[in-house]
Amino acid sequence: MSTSKHRESIRFTKKNGVYYILDSKGRIKKFKPWLGDIFSFLYDCIMEKSIFPKKFNGSIQQHFEILNNELQNIHNKIIIEIATGSGNAVEFLNNDNLYTGIDISAGLLKRAAKRFEQHGFLNAELYIADACNIPFSDNYFDIGICNLSLNFFEDIELFILELKRVLKPGAVFFCSVPVLNKVKSHVKIRGTIHYEEELKKYFKKHNFIFKKILHENGALLYFKATFVTRQNKLERLD
How would you classify the pairing of strands 141-147 and 220-227? Predict the structure, then answer.
């Protein structure tokens, strides 16, 4: 495992509790979030009142219950969440974990920073960064999390490769995502929506053991994928 979280040659600056990547000229690197930063204060309301009932045909309360059930016993781990959003991880993660979150929305991460502080997370860091170009060292994190955002990533295989790079061998990735076999035919969801079997195939291709989490919540698939090297795989078979 690397002793430094940050990749070499990448520089950051911190403002309002959020880290920003600097380009070669020392300027802040900018991204274009799907919900403009000016509307970030509406994010939670939109998710609860519109996206969950109308797009996912599900319940945000049940969503948090499922995640809490899966993650409530995780303590003192080095965690990365891809697409932190407004900081809903405080609803299902213990505050003794070492948390790192990335997102492309500065507005959402500013809100997240306040929530993590309010919930007693003493080791939480938030970064404006792209899921397909994660600015952290190899083999660093114990746990990966991505909720309701996998469909927004431009290149899912590139994301999985980056995820594999930053996770330790044996690390577990928890994910929730809408899937085609569960989305109602008349519903339009932004991004690229995959079938469950497609996702399983992608993760298996890149040395993850894919396991569906058996909870139902509308159009959402919940799964975990354990990153294994060839040696890990042989040890599991013994």
Answer: unpaired
Q: What is the β-pairing status of strands 11-15 and 167-178?
A: unpaired
- Domain 11-237 is classified in which CATH homologous superfamily? Vaccinia Virus protein VP39 (3.40.50.150)
Instruction: Please report, as a single letter, which amino acid is at residue 110.
Output: K
Domain borders along the chain are 11-237
What the block records as the tokens of 198 is 């497609």
DSSP-derived secondary structure letter, 29 = P
Confidence of residue 51 (pLDDT cuts 50, 70, 90): very high
Beta strands at 78-82 and 98-103: parallel, antiparallel or unpaired: parallel
Residue 172: CB atoms within 10 A of its CB come to 20
CA dist., res. 214 & res. 234, Å (int)? 27
pTM value is 0.93
Buried b (16+ CB within 10 A) or exposed e, 116-141: beeeebeebbbbbbbbbebbbbeebb
Residue 230 has φ and ψ, to the nearest 5°, of: -60, -40
Q: Is there a contact between 208 and 232 (Cβ–Cβ < 8 Å)?
A: no
Instruction: Quickly state the pLDDT bin for 31 (edges 50, 70, 90).
Output: confident
How far apart (Å, rounded) are the C-alpha atoms in residues 203 and 157? 8
- Closest by alpha carbon to 148, among 212, 210, 58? 58
For the record, the structure tokens of 151 come out as 């469909």
User: What is d(CA 213, CA 188) in angstroms, rounded to the nearest whole number?
Assistant: 24
